[in-house]
Amino acid sequence: MKKCYLISTEHLEKMLWFRREEDFKVGMNYVAIQAAANPKVTVLAFVLMSNHVHFVVMGDIEDVLAFVNQFKTRYSKYIQKKYGIKELLRRNKIHVKAVDPYEFESLQRVIAYIQMNPVAANICSHPVQYPWGTGNTFFNEAVPVAKHLGDYSKHALGRLLHSECDSLPPDWRITADGYILPQCYVDVVTVEKTFRSPNRMNYFYSSSSKARKRIESSEGNLPSFRDQIILAAMPDLCRTLFQKGGFDQLVTAERSELLRQLRFRFSADVRQMARVCGLTYAETARLLDSE
Q1: What's the rounded Cα separation, in Å, for the pair 182 and 278?
Q2: What is the pLDDT of residues 37-57, one digit of tens each?
Q3: Tens-place pLDDT, residues 111-138
């Protein structure tokens, strides 16, 4: 077996990788495109979170780093074109951790760790419910409704994927929602052989550090909303509460009140509010504490 690595990007404190659902779909397709463009790298699992991403991959370290850096570059260009944000991910550091696939349970725990990210964030109750990654990819006998890439013209496919896509196999499938199924480019067989059964995979989910984090969290039982839902609601709140067009137009007292409203209406914590408002953790905490 090739060397395995856990690749994690540093959490963005004041910005989001993915602001809307469409951005997640683009991110999913860019993973597929990079998998096709980097055949020496095998993708075992991944998850796209609002302000960071995780990959578990196999390959030589040079190829693995190229895979991740090219993914970041491709997505940065998309963000710049759509939102006018330059070099969003240039300084977004990546952390690399070697995983010994022959060490007892090490690979299983790493895969469970990244798959449990949305559960720990209170976005869903089980990884299979989270679409932006491989949570619903393993031990899944259901056949998703999807069309082959070869059914699209080159122009239509490029517009759908927001990228040139000459290297993509025509038998890969794309969902009605517009993203390529991870089953097409993820090594599902290796992962399922590693866990051996769905029950064993669920055991590692329930015993992962992310699961413990959710159980131990004082806010673990509160309702939670995804960053994108809060971000979409903020303009209406600004107009309703302050007759202003957005967060950037609010004065200090109004920003403090809006943050309190986000905490009350969405059970948002300080870190989530900082992300969606583009503030530092310290600035957000100060505004919440101000009278």
Answers
A1: 31
A2: 999 999 999 999 988 999 999
A3: 999 999 988 887 888 899 899 999 999 9
Q: Which two tokens stand for residue 150?
A: 């070869």
Q: Is 183 exposed, middle or buried (0-12, 13-18, 19+ CB in 10 A)?
A: middle
What is the pTM for the complete model shown? 0.80
With a CB cutoff of 8 Å and minimum separation 6, the contacts of 40 are: 59, 60, 63
**Residue 13 dihedral angles phi and psi, to the nearest 5°:** -85, -40
Answer CATH for 4-216 from 3.10.450.50, 3.40.190.10, 3.30.70.1290, 3.40.50.2300 = 3.30.70.1290
Say if residues 246 and 235 touch (Cβ distance below 8 Å). yes
Secondary structure (3-state) at 97? strand
CA-wise closest residue to 193 among 107, 98, 129, 99:
107
What's the distance, Cα to Cα, between the start and end of the chain in Å? 59
Q: Give SS3 for 218.
A: coil
Domain segments of the chain as ranges: 4-216, 227-289
Assigned token pair, 44: 């075992």
DSSP per-residue string spanning 121-176: TTS-SSGGG--SBSTTTTT------EEEGGGS-HHHHHHHHTS--TTS-TT-EEET
Between helix 106-115 and helix 188-195 the angle, nearest 10°, is 110
